[in-house]
């Protein structure tokens, strides 16, 4: 069975594929100092709860945007799975073109998403990944990564608003019923939520105008579901882009087609 690890700046996803389906997925807060032994204890307990055993895992692929964590994740695979992991960006063949000025600067998560989206959707694509940052990635019809946009994530903006303005409280993100708020909290919720909807709609419109051809827009990421039903600019919401991409990269690099 394959262990796929996708690590963002805020959360880390662990997913297990049994050769046919994804049989388990868990998220944990990203902590760059967490050791391989700590990961192993945590993962073993969760596997046991699903009737699985860490000794059943015989493959591992890692995508991380936190360089200081890769050492410990690599050691988790080596010590407890007894396999050398595939690490995105570490001489792994992605099988796609990266048409930007400095291909080495493309984030691992963005390239993995590009592969996962191209497998599922035809034509030119825009991928909106809502996480610590909100990224807009353009993927050509041939699967190549063409670049995109990076904006602060909605949680990051909310945190900055609270920390920089002494009178503004820390609030939870939710969709307000009205745009015009009647108190401080509803004012903030409207500004953050509808402000991000406007950001999405504005950037998607500009990307499409600049690209010049029809594009399908895919939403993914930890807070993407917040925007479902709030805008017509996103055509599909797909939470599985990343793990679909990781599985495909694993297949391409191990030449195993039935895993």
From TrEMBL:
Pathway: Cofactor biosynthesis; coenzyme A biosynthesis; CoA from (R)-pantothenate: step 1/5. It catalyses: (R)-pantothenate + ATP = (R)-4'-phosphopantothenate + ADP + H(+). It is found in: Cytoplasm. K(+) binds at residue 129. Its cofactor is NH4(+); K(+). A monovalent cation. Ammonium or potassium. The active site is at 109 (proton acceptor). InterPro entries: ATPase_NBD (IPR043129), Type_III_PanK (IPR004619). GO terms for biological process: coenzyme A biosynthetic process. Its main location: cytoplasm. Its EC number is 2.7.1.33. Substrate binds at residues 107-110, 184. GO terms for molecular function: ATP binding; metal ion binding; pantothenate kinase activity. Homodimer. Belongs to the type III pantothenate kinase family. Catalyzes the phosphorylation of pantothenate (Pan), the first step in CoA biosynthesis. This is Type III pantothenate kinase.
């Amino acid at each position: 069975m394959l262990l796929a690890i996708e690590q963002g700046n805020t959360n880390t996803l662990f997913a297990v594929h049994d050769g046919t389906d994804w049989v388990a997925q868990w998220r944990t807060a990203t902590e760059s100092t967490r050791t391989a032994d700590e990961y192993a204890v945590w993962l073993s307990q969760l596997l046991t709860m699903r009737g699985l055993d860490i000794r059943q895992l015989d493959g591992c692929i890692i995508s991380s945007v936190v360089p200081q964590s890769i050492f410990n994740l690599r050691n988790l695979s080596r010590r407890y799975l007894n396999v050398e992991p595939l690490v995105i960006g570490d001489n792994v063949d992605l099988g796609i073109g990266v048409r930007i000025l400095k291909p080495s600067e493309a984030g691992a998560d963005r390239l993995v998403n590009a592969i996962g989206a191209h497998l599922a959707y035809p034509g030119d694509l825009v991928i909106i990944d809502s996480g610590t940052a909100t990224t807009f990635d353009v993927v050509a019809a041939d699967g190549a990564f063409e670049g995109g946009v990076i904006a602060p994530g909605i949680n990051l903006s909310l945190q900055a608003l609270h920390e920089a303005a002494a009178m503004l409280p820390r609030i939870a993100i939710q969709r307000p019923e009205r745009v015009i708020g009647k108190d401080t909290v509803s004012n903030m919720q409207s500004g953050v939520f509808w402000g991000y909807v406007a950001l999405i709609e504005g950037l998607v419109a500009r990307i499409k105008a600049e690209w010049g051809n029809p594009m399908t827009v895919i939403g993914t990421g930890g807070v993407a579901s917040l925007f479902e039903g709030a805008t017509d600019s996103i055509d599909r919401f797909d939470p599985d882009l990343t793990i679909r991409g990781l599985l495909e990269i694993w297949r391409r690099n191990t030449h195993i087609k039935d895993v």
